[in-house]
Amino acid sequence: MSKSFFIWSGTCLLAQRADAYVGPGAGFVLASGFWTLTALVLAALAILILPVRLLLSWHRGKKIAAQASAERVVVIGLDGLDPQLVARWMEEGRLPAFKKLAEQGTFRPLQTTLPAITPSAWSAFATGVDASRHCIYDFITRDSHTYQPVLSSARISAPRRSLGVGPYRLPLGKAQVRNLRRSQPFWKVLGDNHISSSIVRVPISFPPEKFAGLLLAGMCAPDLRGTQGECTYFFSGPEPQDTSVGCCIRLELERGRVSTSIPGPANPLRPDGKRLTAAMDLDVNPAAELATLVIGGEKIVLQKRVYSPWITLTFAAGLGVRVRGLCRFYLIEAEPLRLYVTPIQIDPTHPHLPLSHPPSYAPYLARRLGKFATVGLAEDTDALNADLIDERAFLDQTYLLDDERQAMFFHALDKTPKGLAACVFDSPDRIQHMFFRTLDPDHPANRGREGDGLADTIPDMYARMDDLVGRTLEKIDCAKTVLMVISDHGFCTFKRGVNLNTWLWQNGYLCLREGCTHSAEWLAQVDWSRTRAFALGLTGLFINLRGREAGGIVASGTELRQLKAELCSRLTGLVDQETGETAINKAWDTAASFSGPYTDDGPDLLIGYNAGYRASWSGASGQVTEAVFETNTRPWSGDHCVDPRLVPGVFFCNRKIGIRNPHLLDIPPSILGLFGIEPPSYMQGRDVFVPAAGSDV
Description:
The chain is of the alpha+beta class and 697 residues long. The chain has a domain at 494-643. It is built from 16 helices and 37 strands. Strands 4-37-26-3-25-11-12-24 form an 8-stranded mixed sheet, sandwiched between helices. β17 and β18 (298-303) form a beta hairpin. α10 (427-435) runs antiparallel to α11 (457-475). The N and C termini lie far apart (61 Å). Mean pLDDT is 91; it is low at 1-40.
């Protein structure tokens, strides 16, 4: 069986359910002889023409190099770093490396995208085009046939045919994994022009696309169960208040011992898809505040509140097929037992999904640097929101992951003496999401947490990023290397949620089935025969359009235009009656704001919330509740899914630039220009190093 044909698919980070699609079997075996012969023939031809290709490549590369103004470009992406906070702490002397970079080169706010959400913004960074051209508006979108959520960034299609062999099901053919982001990343343009790149963990790069360079996939790569990050939580005492997050399992210990198992992915070889499990023996010593695990013959001693190293889990599917994953264990309490297990990562040494390009890159990094997290959203914000872990456990986890990322970045920097080295760091975004309340004494999420000693969490994280930049400056020759430090957006507080579905229901645009006064998740009780608009996800709302949605009732043309204009007018300036504050600054008609070929694929209206507001948790998951406005008391207390004018990112560079107001869309053409390459005509940004007409910069 070939491990390269095991495919797991996650629906979305909100749904937290896993659907498994697999293609390990007969189709590959039957075809393998033919394709082996074909590969040998193609390899022989490639060897014959290699000298000609090398000569042409050398000649073209020499011509491009003569036009370049830099030998190397290094991009440090610090997800969510905020320009106002950077400026404040630079002024206070906390960020010396950033200050040095600003004084010697450039520091500007970096305009972000509409919508100001991570997958859309980093897709703009990769491609140089807006959402209507790269087609990523949110983490999720709706399936127009079912109204159910689907991941917007990737899709996995199962083989159409399978062969039954006793109790097993063997797919005939292989599953297809597709990256749904449109347009092409600028590093492919670099590769086409013989400029090498090392791209590490840039969001929406799963599955990796082929190009002349190295890439390790980032955000939206799933865990082994097919979710965007589902933990396991063992307990022997009171049940957690929120059991909807993760896989919560009660254990009955006898004299401190129990034999149990860790749930894994659905069995790819069985029609019932029953979960595979990995056996585990647990021996708890409350007096010593430790526990001993035995998994797969390996003995691991867990100390209280200390993460274990990455532990390999092996899941046997049958017919000799085994699937490997990685996880860390964290003993919260010995008595009563509280044991947290991180989401199960796809093992980078034996990946059952395409995690890198070339496929050997992920195993190479694991051998060289040690095992590492592979799920795109590895920092377990859900577990902290549900109080399965506390703030210290979350911070320890986040910084362990950040250590891995920094090792990958500096390895890429060392191995890319010329060309492009780019790496995105997630920790600034995750920490600000979960700790922004510490900057806001009046935040409702502080109630009951006022004395938790975490006031310096965010400035400490900014100092950590400053140290990263400082060490990078020490390693590069600024005469030959252009360093850019950018963020995709900034941050603001999140105190109140807005449930658009409830507002639509109260105002007659969304209807529920007869007798219903609310709807459960994913619009379960909505009457589509009478509904004109609905919301799903974090960025906007959809029109129930006839001919597009399965039960659409709104006609295209005049009726559609009038409805969108009416909704934009009524939602723009929406006031929270409880606080008296404006909750929505502006509602944009997507069709009037964009002109790309994928304009109709996004929400029909994009919502620009005011600072302090965002789509509510219930509204984002398609619920209809009693109240439009909800107070946010979760640890997730900061956000950026607001009016993009409120949350610009940062732009630092060790060179001066020629414009005052750089935009995220400007980064790709600017990097191409540094290498002497004319940007493709479809890119929408400017070259920031070329002075704008009339500019005095």
